[in-house]
Amino acid sequence: VKSSDVLITPGVLGTPKQLEKILCSIGSTFSEISYLSIGDSADSDVMRSILYQSKVKVVRGGDMALTQLCELLRKTFLVISGRHHINVLCLLLGVPFLPIPSNTWKVEGTLTDLHPDYTPCLSLQSLKRRIQSIVTSNPIRLEIPMDLVRKASAKTENFVKGISCGHFNSI
């Protein structure tokens, strides 16, 4: 994947309609578009047809090691993702990404802790606006503050200890 590319990986909520909207938002902004499939939505006949007709390269994530996935992300100019763990990898690697809605609160929760104004793109207009903003200026580079990592680690440790003792209180 070249540095001028965009990588799309919508996650479990990926639908043909959503994919078409994302591709419409991208328009002719990028010369090459790749789709990271991790054994879910791209495997449907309709999704494969849309990807093929749009000349989108499908990358099979299930076939690569973590180091290969990190290399793919590092070489990508922009990632559009509804996958929490891909977003976290982008954060760790310093790769610009635009979050899209997911099936859980993880994406929104993580982003709210890091940058309250950095929320998933909920509309076609929002996605187009943010793509253009990233292309024409410097994208927001989110960083993971170490104090936040320490707090999350302590909360997780306490939560696990609580479960092991039979307590199911929330963190």
Give an account of the 3D structure.
By secondary structure, the chain is an alpha/beta fold. The protein is 47% helix and 12% strand. It is built from seven helices and five strands. Strands 3-2-1-4-5 form a five-stranded parallel beta sheet, sandwiched between helices. Helix 4 (84-93) links the parallel strand 4 (78-81) and strand 5. Helix 1 (16-26) packs parallel to helix 6. The longest helix is centred in the last third of the chain and has 19 residues, at 146-164. The radius of gyration is 17 Å and the shape is globular. The mean pLDDT is 79.
Helix content: 40-55%
In terms of DSSP E residues, the strand content is: 5-15%
Question: How many β strands by DSSP?
Answer: 5
Biggest sheet strand line-up:
3-2-1-4-5
Task: Characterize the overall form.
Answer: globular
Key phrases:
5 strands, 171 residues, globular, alpha/beta
What is this structure's SSE topology?
Elements: E1 6-9, H1 16-26, E2 33-37, H2 45-53, E3 57-60, H3 66-74, E4 78-81, H4 84-93, E5 97-99, H5 106-114, H6 124-136, H7 146-164
Parallel strand pairs: 1-2, 1-4, 2-3, 4-5
Helix pairs in contact: 1-6
Brief write-up:
With 171 residues, this protein is α/β, with parallel strands linked by helices. It has helices at 16-26, 45-53, 66-74, 84-93, 106-114, 124-136, 146-164; strands at residues 6-9, 33-37, 57-60, 78-81, 97-99. Strands 3-2-1-4-5 form a 5-stranded parallel sheet, with helices on both faces.
